[in-house]
Amino acid sequence: MIILTNDDGIDAPGIRALHKAINGKGIIVAPKDHQSGCGHQVTTTQPIPLLRRSETEYTVGGTPADCTRLALTHICPDTTWVLSGINAGGNLGVDVYISGTVAAVREAAMHGIPGIAVSHWIRRPLIVDWDVAARCTAKVLADLMTRPIASGSFWNVNLPHLEPGAADPEIVFCEPSTKPLPVNYRVEGDDYYYVGEYAKRDRTPGTDVDVCFSGCIAVTQLRL
Fold it and tell me: What are the Survival protein SurE-like phosphatase/nucleotidase domain coordinates in residue numbering (predicted)?
């Protein structure tokens, strides 16, 4: 059985696109609310509300990692894959340490279950076409889900943001960038506002950041 989750919340368009990419298969176990940027946070000292919305959908009052934990231990112990996304925004390079999307599949890998995190870089002012994202994701999943992957490893996929009508992008296997995100703040009195510009991050050739920003689908294999 395939579990689908995300960090944008169960009603986000990205998880619907992911569901479409696997032809409506699997069980959705996703956060009730937006959890973007929560990393691998888990809930251990308070109740986690779990609501069954349908035969194939569960909402969780917790984080993406909570969703994976509950899916594997209580909802679907016979899970064979955990898929997370499609995140509205890139999860490239060091983003994987911040990302709830990636944390959901990292948690699966901890339990010996393979996983794939899928994200869509947003190149403003372009608007995400979720039908295109679903089509590209379907192609990537068809490849990755037939490849052997070592225990403790998982896949991280980032879709580029192309102009409307552009040809479907090439899939490129690459290494993750290890360069930091741009860090800058606007100061107003005692308050600091993050103003780092995502698109201005380091683009070392051959890394996932450069591959995705160049218009290809960046695929990295990560290990615990």
Answer: 2-165
